[in-house]
Design goal:
Elements lengths: L4 E5 L3 H12 L3 E6 L10 E3 L3 H9 L2 H6 L6 E5 L5 E5 L12 E3 H10 L6 E4 L3 E7 L2 E6 L4 E4 L1 E4 L7 H5 L5 E16 L7 E7 L3 E7 L4 E8 L10 H11 L7 H8 L6 E10 L3 E2 L2 E3 L2 H4 L2 H4 L2 H17 L4 H20 L5 H5 L4 H14 L5 H6 L17
Parallel strand pairs: 1-2, 1-11, 2-7, 4-13, 11-18
Antiparallel strand pairs: 3-6, 4-5, 8-9, 9-10, 12-15, 12-16, 13-14, 14-15, 17-18
């Protein structure tokens, strides 16, 4: 019997998880990635909730744990770097999770463990999707024509392929009003193995996080954000430098280091909400389907789960419409739980005035006190469910 065939667009966590599971269940898989080669690097992600069970099923739990970032906890600091509060980081949850890993290291772990037979096409993108009764035909910008039983769109939040299949009325792109700048900077003697987090007035955050490579991952996040899409790196950093001129703490050091950092990445946080994640022989997964942003957290966990759940539902029936509907139904409660951010969260996280900042610090101390620590820990819980994963037998 001929194997079913799938084309996956996107070689990050959602795409690689889907490739792993589909291949293990007998599919022929081709992965298309717009980057010219596999992309290492990136900032911290973590694996929580049911996604931990997925890693165990893949026999990759220990491999991911071995690549941890070395981060031991999370503390809030003032402008002098003095700790004012410590966030819960106990067990598998908390601000610093047990499975804390760089995005590229998690993706590399999945890539290295892919079963034989997964084909990769780098440096190409999907230009056209023709969905027919008996399958889907994909035409790439590079002139390739691929016929498949299924197209999985596992691209980023601003997916171009999504727009080829779904109407604007089916996709809501919600701007959260936050700009984030990520980069790797040199480690100094005064750095340690904690995630250190400083909040300044005028809606500015400064983060320093350790990595396993002897450097530091720096994040500058602020709200209201700037419209930086389409600007050059130098133009963006000039805007950010002006914004952080008097932010204090490690801001000057980070700004100077970002000027020569090899991997500066800037993003305007945007949620994606879709009324459906499937149409015909096309299905969405990961950020292209439901970007939850760092404000909600759990994107990597949901991406790992997506591949596992999709493969299980497809293996349970020959009717792909039934399978894709079941995938949607299983994943949606977890996604909705993360996307439904508390009202006023942005204003609380990014206080604009000194009075607002003082109030934020009072709340921080209360929420990290012994009495409230269990409640605070629950705020970082994602991908948690009482349901069992759909049954699946792998080859």
């Amino acid at each position: 019997m001929k194997n079913r065939t799938a084309v996956i667009s996107g070689a990050s966590i959602a795409g690689l998880s889907t490739a792993w599971w589909l291949r293990r269940t007998g599919w022929d898989v081709t992965v298309i990635e717009r980057a010219p080669a596999f992309r290492d690097g990136g900032q911290n992600v973590d694996v929580r909730g049911a996604a931990r069970d997925v890693l165990r099923e893949m026999h990759l739990f220990d491999a991911v744990a071995a690549r941890n970032t070395t981060e031991t906890g999370t503390v809030l600091v003032d402008a002098r770097g003095v700790v004012t509060a410590e966030l819960p980081s106990d067990g598998s949850g908390g601000a610093t999770a047990e499975l804390e890993i760089l995005r590229g290291d998690l993706a590399r772990t999945l890539l290295d463990d892919l079963p034989d037979g997964v084909e990769f096409v780098y440096g190409d993108t999907i230009a056209r999707v023709d969905d027919e009764v008996d399958g889907v035909t994909i035409t790439t910008a590079g002139g390739r024509r691929l016929d498949a039983d299924l197209l999985v769109v596992a691209e980023g939040v601003r997916s171009r392929t999504r727009a080829l299949v779904f109407d604007e009325s089916e996709v809501e792109e919600r701007d959260l009003g936050v700009t984030m700048v990520f980069g790797t900077i040199p480690r100094l003697d005064r750095d340690d193995d904690r995630w250190r987090w400083h909040t300044a007035a005028r809606g500015r955050q400064i983060h320093l996080r350790p990595d396993p490579y002897g450097t530091i991952r720096a994040i500058l996040a602020y709200s209201p954000g700037d419209d930086v899409l389409g600007t050059t790196r130098d133009e963006t950093l000039e805007l950010v430098r002006a914004r952080y001129a008097d932010a204090g703490w490690e801001a000057p050091r980070i700004l100077d280091a970002l000027a020569t950092s090899p991997d500066v990445y800037v993003d305007q946080l945007q949620q994606v909400r879709m009324t459906t994640w499937h149409r015909g022989h096309v299905v969405m997964a990961g950020d292209a389907a439901w970007c939850v942003t760092p404000m909600g957290g759990g994107g990597a966990s949901l991406a790992l789960l997506a591949g596992r759940v999709l493969a299980a539902e497809l293996a349970s029936t020959d009717d792909h419409d039934v399978a894709l509907a079941a995938y949607d139904a299983w994943m949606r409660p977890l996604v909705d739980d993360v996307q439904d951010l508390p009202r006023g969260l942005t204003a609380f996280a990014y206080p604009q005035t000194r009075a607002g900042l003082a109030l934020r610090r009072v709340v921080d101390r209360v929420m990290t006190s012994r009495a409230f620590r269990p409640l605070t820990a629950k705020l970082t819980a994602v991908a948690e469910t009482d349901r069992s994963l759909p049954p699946l037998t792998v080859r």
